[in-house]
Amino acid sequence: MSQNVSEMRVSNKVGQEFGDLAQNQTKADVAGADAPAATPTLDTLPRRLSDFNTLGEALDYAASGTRGFNFFDARATLVRAYPFAELRADAIAGAHRLIAAGVKPAARVALIAETSAEFAQLFFAAIYAAALPTPLPLPTSFGGRDAYVDQIRTQLGSCDPVIVLAPEGLFAMVAEAAETIKTCTALDWSAFLGQPAAAVAALPAPSPEDIAYLQYSSGSTRFPHGVMVTHRALLANLSGHAISMQAQPTDRVVSWLPWYHDMGLVGCMLTPVANQLSADFIATDDFARRPLSWMALVSRNEGTTVSFSPTFGYDICTRRISSQVDVKTRFDLSRWRIAGNGADMIRPDVMQAFVDAFAPAGFRAAAFLPSYGLAEATLAVSTMPVGEGIVTDLVDERILSGEGRAGADKSKPTRYRAIVNCGKPLPGLTVEIIGEDGEALADRQIGKIFVSGLGIMSGYFRDPEATAACLQDGRLDTGDMGYLADGYIYIVGRAKDMIIVNGKNHWPQDIEWAIEQLPGFKAGDIAAFSITTSNGEEAPAVLVQCRTTDMDERCRLRDEIRAKVRLLTGMTCVVELVPPRTLPRTSSGKLSRSKARTLYLSGHIQPLDIAA
Fold this sequence. Notes:
Blueprint: E1 2-4, H1 18-31, H2 55-62, E2 68-72, E3 78-83, H3 84-100, E4 108-112, H4 117-128, E5 132-136, H5 144-159, E6 163-166, H6 171-178, E7 185-188, H7 189-193, E8 211-216, E9 226-230, H8 231-244, E10 251-255, H9 262-274, E11 279-282, H10 284-289, H11 292-300, E12 304-309, H12 311-320, H13 327-330, E13 336-341, H14 348-358, E14 368-373, E15 380-383, E16 391-396, H15 397-400, E17 416-420, E18 424-425, E19 429-434, E20 447-453, E21 459-460, H16 464-470, E22 471-472, E23 475-485, E24 488-494, E25 499-501, E26 504-506, H17 508-516, E27 526-532, E28 538-545, H18 551-569, E29 574-578, H19 593-601
Parallel strand pairs: 2-11, 4-5, 4-6, 6-7, 10-11, 10-12, 12-13, 13-14, 28-29
Antiparallel strand pairs: 1-16, 2-3, 8-9, 9-21, 14-15, 15-18, 16-17, 19-20, 20-23, 22-23, 23-24, 25-26, 27-28
């Protein structure tokens, strides 16, 4: 049973034709001669869809055109345009500096992944030096300074770099983290880039099979895994992604995603280089303060926009729109060609709310492009065909819980869960659903998702055991559960997050979603996981961020939550109310249930008092 998120019937504003767009760009250049001018959307350079041997070769080609990166502040004001030609020249100069500093091919160069021209320059400097750029995360709100220093120290210990470069504002913390890494030198990147030009030396010539970079997945904190991606795997994935998205001459990328996450780094920073697209960037922190700046940049683009976000990004924008805002006058989203959605479970209700809020500005629900991917597959495994939007499959919850086929017990009412269609595999990739016996399953049977083909990682850096656990005979065990139907992929959840009680499966997002429907709660306020009770039995536990200080109200909320979960699962669960901003998140902003469970069981998350 399938259904589309409704396509709002709005009168679509007329998009710019290719020639009109070129004319408008010329007028803008003349009118804004004294102000920074963004790199153009259009270019006479023939487009190549990532058909290069190495990433450095891709930048060499992109630099022969006029497109490039553009950096905006929180108010969506252009701060710096960075044409690919300038990026290439700076990166080659940076490569000579790295080589002069003793950086050898395959050595790791750790970089704090700030959304900036400096990071882009240093990343490609490492590429040209045949070193392995290794992006590391920026601080998050959870844990504070000490937690960040510890996280960076752990990841530096994992990747064992010869140098770590950081922006001035974070250098002190990064230098502290690097103190225990004897072979690693910490440098302020402004000082490094401000050094006199190094002597010109012959640059190494990497092969397509060489590792291009290391990517730490968003959950890589206590036990980090550096994903090794070759040039061939990267460019194959970027090519498949561009083909699946039907790249257009008028496309322009707009992004606020962090560059230490694969969707931000590969999908929004490397994709424009390998496919010769101009890109407009807002730093993630600036987006968090002013999320509607994202909508402003999309509106200004006179070409067609390609922009991706996890569900929560769309949710934040919807929540910022008040009844006093005239959406139709303030924004023009009619040329938003691809509104990608991935990196987390896609919530149809949240996406529909975005359509409802921004349809007056010309946004079309058909622009949504659900996708599925992971760093171990470089970026994308599957994308929805362009123009099909969000399609859901309504599945009997008894099937999801492992009880068998729908209709097994006619005396009980049937409850359904909407599973989002995440599209078809990229060219060169094969997806299989594998059962507990190791055999491939038929359509609509839920099992583990395995991926093989172009774009799969070489393994985890210096971690053969972890590599062997997920790479089996060339097939990648994603750790995700899902099913296939008519060639489309449906994601049910993470295998490690599943709550199994008395042989019955319960998906934490179902429990969390049910609680979010209660007044006063929103997405991200709840974390569900399993615990072992004092009598040795498994039971679901729910941590809920609570904002009230009234004891009677807390008691009422706890009882209401417990009743809601009992109605959904038939079980009594442990409910703990915790202070706001308590639940941990990964570096990419996703809720970390496993870390929440660990912190709760260790006593680091302290529940609020509730009257007996």
